[in-house]
Amino acid sequence: MESVIERIERGHFWKFHGGIHPPEQKFLTNDKPIRHLPLPKQLIIPLRQHIGNGGELIVAVGDKVLKGQPLTQNSAPMTLPVHAPTSGTITAIKDSVIAHPSGLSEPCIFITPDGEDRWRERQVCDDFHSLSRQEIVKKIARAGIAGMGGAGFPTHIKVNNKPEINYLIINAAECEPYITADDLLIREHSEAIVDGIKILDHLLLPAFILIGIEDNKPEAIEALRQATKSYDKVKICVIPTKYPAGGEKQLIKVLTGQEVPSGILPISLGIVMQNIATCFAIAEAVLNDTPLIRRVVTVSGRALSKPRNVWALLGTPVEYLLEQCGYQPGKRRHLIMGGPMMGFSLPSTQVPIVKITNCLLAPEESEIPADSKEVECIRCGQCAEVCPSQLLPQELQWSAKAKDYDQLQKLNLFDCIDCGACAYVCPSQIPLVQYYRVAKAEIRQLQVQELKAEKAKDRFEARKARLEREKKAREEKHRKAAEARRAAMNQPTQEAQSAKSAVAAALARVKAKKAQAADSDNTQGKPPETETNSPSTNEVSANATNTGQDPRADQKSQVAAAIARAKAKKQAAMAKAESESGQKQEHAAEEEVRQETQTDTMQDSDSSNAEGHNQDNVQDNAEDKALDKKQKIAAAIARAKAKKLSAQKAAEPGQGELEDNSSSNQDKDTPDEARAAEDDNTESQMTDTDTADTAESSKQEKIQAAVAKAKEKARAKAKAKAQAKSEAEATSEPSAPAAKTLQDQEVDIEDTPASDESNTDASADTSDEAKPEDQKAQRIAAAVAKAKAKAKAKAKEKAKARAEAKEQQQLESE
């Protein structure tokens, strides 16, 4: 089987699928030398002129720069710096329209040249073999060199790979119509181009170097042969002219016969490709320390009076180049950056020249196709026949219009090289390439957003994990610190003993403060602090263990404190209930007395105004009414006391069990009626606090005032009735019902609890003639006073005992 080199030497090459033969139109510029232009009035330098991100700014507005001075610096592998094309002053850094099909605006540096064109200091290298491989790669990177054939891929990344390279292919095909920049560059600077090829050979060490050039450039072919005649490793490959033979995959197919699979880079097949203009820039950067600040641009088209190739400084506005080449715009003004097949229309003449600009096309009206509307596809299939990437342009266009991005990727949209062959042959005038470019941009934007979302998710998960680790580390640190403190306190040293003493003293102070607060709360009738403000049993027990105290003694003190708190809460609740019930009883008693008084007054007035009745009946009725009124007053007082006792019993159902039962058996010689009153008052007195006594005394004062008022009204009525009785002619004994009522009243007085002296006085003073009843009331009052005195004494003894017990516990804990 014939080898690749043998086929090349014989001039036999492979063919790629599809392709077209559009009019070349290269004669407009291929017979004129490259022209050097004067400095423009202003240069616009975009920060990003390649595939990847722009560099980081290192200059500011107002800075003076020299020719070749870097304006940005590398901040990532896919970034490249830009340099000042001439000396001058930076007048602005702002967004401006760049060379892009959509007319995007991006950050740009505006430089006003000073006309001196002064260089920065450069280090010229006569022999690149004296430099290491890494030094050469750094020189290429610092020079900001990117692929100048149109892709703009950073060159230092491409040449920094060192796998087994079989073929280094130099692309000099320049297949697109009108463009002759590479053709003229080869003719005038073939020696420099060969130096660049030698540098690439030194870096990549390929087996063979193939220079692919179309057969429509005879002068350039001869110049390359003369420059490489002593360089046996280089093979000049003159291929047939066919568009787009200059495509990367297409040129590889023509020269080597290998198909590059979809999604695979040529480097994986042992092939590296570089453009002929890139080789010239590499030689300038490595040997002359000249960054990429200029390039050859073909300015062509029939609308120009002097079309030619020019050395254009990067950042030169398109308008300036057109003026230098005699642009004569017509009515249908149309400017294209790039060739007629792969170029794009310019939105403004202020767009600057960048690293990948190789052509500026200004056609006249006859060269511009007539405006024709897009019609429906007739399914002729010509687009598929000419597609060099063997795609299905018709289905791609349908999916692009439907924004079916998944289907576009299945159809290998990104294998399209935007050559425009499909649109060139379409009879329906469908701009297929424009559909593909828009779809590619939208897909790339979605991929960037998905990548950002994925990175944000990763950052969130990392932050969450970091916070969890920090939390666990803090907990472990605190645990170890606590263990170290406990271990230090348990050591038999003076410092440990002093630490224990300090902890014990602190606990004692805390307990003393709590006891003082509890006593003050009990005195004021307020509930003590809740348990949430005091340390739990487990915490106190742990503290006691750490300080060397007895946990059981501490538990007893806690139980005692809890019982004291419970009693204080009960007493406060009882005091509140008694206060409310007392107020209700006072209002009820006053209301009953007031109603009885009003009723008696009305009845007296009715009886005094009645005529024709017997005087004996009047006297009997008056006495009956007086007795009945006394009886009702006593009954009301008895009911109020009964309600009070029932409320007290409901408020503290188990109080009798907590109190000492010996109080009921202290004095056996007390009379029965006094002992009953004493028992009742002793039980209430043992459970009432000072606040309850205060409420009781205020209640008694109100009841006494109501009773006194009732007594005065009763005396006034009695005097009026006495006067009526003296005027009566005949006297009679009290009737049987009246006597019975009096006896019932005496029984009620005896059975009424003697806890309230005011009630007893009210019963005793209702009649001045009831001396036995007065004696009985006095005895009851004496018994009540004696019971109260005993209860108070016993309460003082208990309080004293509790205080001594607390002091003893504190001493034991210390």
UniProtKB/TrEMBL annotation:
Acidic residues: compositionally biased ranges: 745-754
Sections of the chain in a coiled coil: none
Biased composition (Polar residues): 519-549, 598-620, 755-765
Assembly notes: The complex is composed of six subunits: RnfA, RnfB, RnfC, RnfD, RnfE and RnfG.
Translocase as UniProt keyword: yes
Task of the protein: Part of a membrane-bound complex that couples electron transfer with translocation of ions across the membrane.
Binding site for [4Fe-4S] cluster 2: 387, 416, 419, 422
Positions of [4Fe-4S] cluster 1 binding: 377, 380, 383, 426
Pfam families the record matches: Complex1_51K, Fer4_7, RnfC_N, SLBB
Entry's Gene Ontology cellular component terms: plasma membrane
Protein known as: Ion-translocating oxidoreductase complex subunit C
Listed cofactors: [4Fe-4S] cluster
Family as reported in the entry's similarity comment: Belongs to the 4Fe4S bacterial-type ferredoxin family. RnfC subfamily.
Keywords: 4Fe-4S, Cell inner membrane, Cell membrane, Electron transport, Iron, Iron-sulfur, Membrane, Metal-binding, Repeat, Translocase, Transport
Gene expressing this chain: rsxC
